[in-house]
User: Which sequence fits this backbone?
C-alpha cells in the first residue's frame, strides 16, 4: 500500500489557495520535496500530435478477490485485500492494489480537462508502480460506479466490504493508450511511476459525478 498510505494519513490540500495546496506540498515535509524538485511530475497535458502510437503491450490479468470501499477524504477508493491479479507490461507483472476517482480529471489531453478520472493503481514485487488512468465525460451511467452507488451513499469511516469483485468489471483498458514515466499525483510525489492514460473516454452520469464529489473533502 506504499502508493496510498502517505496520502491517506497526512493532510494536504488540492486548492492553490490552500496553505497546504499543491504549490506548497514540497515544503510541507522533507520527504515530500520531490513535489517541488521532481523532473517527471504527474499529471501532465498530453499532446496528441506529439504522441507516438505503437502496438500496446498491456495485458490485463485481473481476477476476483475480496475488496473494501473506503473514503480517504481526498478520494473514494476500492481497495483489494488479497491477490486480485493485475496487469502485465513488457513482461513485468504489476499487482492490483486499489482504484480511486478524482473530480475533475488530473490529466488533460490537448488542454482539455475531463469531468472525472479513475486511477487503477498497481505495484510489482520489485515495488515498481504502474497506474492506469481512465478519463470520464458526462453522459450515460458508469456500471462500475452504479454497482457502488448505494454503498457510497452510506459510506462511513469504517468502510464497507464489497465481497469478491474483479477489476475486469471496470472495463477501462483500451487498445490505444498514452504511456509515459511520471510520478504519484499526491505527496510524496515519488517518480518512476509508469502511467497508462486511455485514449477512449468513458461516460459517467451527472448524478454519479455529484455523488463522488459530495463524499469528498477535495
Assistant:
Amino acid at each position: 500500500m506504499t502508493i496510498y498510505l502517505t496520502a491517506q494519513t497526512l493532510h494536504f490540500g488540492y486548492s492553490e489557495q490552500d496553505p497546504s495546496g499543491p504549490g506548497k506540498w514540497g515544503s510541507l515535509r522533507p520527504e515530500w520535496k520531490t513535489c517541488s524538485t521532481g523532473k517527471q511530475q504527474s499529471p501532465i497535458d498530453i499532446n496528441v500530435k506529439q504522441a507516438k502510437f505503437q502496438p500496446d503491450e498491456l495485458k490485463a490479468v485481473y481476477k476476483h478477490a475480496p475488496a473494501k470501499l473506503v473514503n480517504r477524504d481526498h478520494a473514494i477508493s476500492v481497495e483489494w485485500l488479497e491477490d486480485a491479479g493485475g496487469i502485465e507490461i513488457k513482461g513485468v507483472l504489476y499487482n492490483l492494489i486499489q482504484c480511486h476517482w478524482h473530480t475533475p480529471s488530473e490529466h488533460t489531453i490537448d488542454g482539455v480537462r475531463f469531468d472525472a478520472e479513475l486511477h487503477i493503481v498497481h505495484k510489482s514485487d520489485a515495488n515498481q508502480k504502474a497506474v492506469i488512468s481512465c478519463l470520464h465525460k458526462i453522459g450515460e451511467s458508469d456500471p462500475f460506479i452504479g454497482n457502488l452507488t448505494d454503498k457510497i451513499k452510506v459510506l462511513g469511516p469504517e468502510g464497507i466490504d464489497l465481497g469478491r469483485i474483479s477489476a475486469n468489471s471496470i472495463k477501462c483498458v483500451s487498445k490505444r493508450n498514452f504511456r509515459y514515466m511520471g510520478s504519484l499525483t499526491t505527496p510524496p510525489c515519488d517518480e518512476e511511476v509508469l502511467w497508462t492514460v486511455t485514449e477512449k473516454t468513458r461516460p459517467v452520469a451527472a448524478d454519479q459525478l455529484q455523488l463522488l464529489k459530495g463524499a469528498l473533502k477535495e
